[in-house]
Amino acid sequence: MKIIQDQLKSNLPEIKSGQTVRVYQKIKEAGKERIQPFEGLVIATKHGRGLDGTFTVRKIAQGVGVERIYPLHSPTIDKIEILKMAKVRRAKLYYMRGRFGKRARMKRKEAVSVPEETKKEPPEVS
After folding, report:
1. The CATH number of the domain where 43 resides is what?
2. 118 found inside a domain
3. pTM (predicted TM-score)
């Protein structure tokens, strides 16, 4: 168990289907290392948040659909940014593979934010 705990990342965001994410991946080429971003829609998450958990990101590049499956706790993933959240009603968005253009649009989901007034602690009453 100690070996597994050492490999888990602690700074991962909550990744769900319908989110548009930007994944920064470390790429080694000719002895150099660079970071390559991949931005797209999360169409599936599988196997939970454990060591074997994965998520699938899809984007359209030059008219061709490109999908990448990333392990959640991969050492090659530098960071993951959540850019947008869409309102979805199913866990796997495989139907997006057949859609393009305006038909591929999804309804935007508003981020839940707490007003500043409620964040303050109430004054103590004596």
Report:
1. 2.30.30.790
2. no
3. 0.78
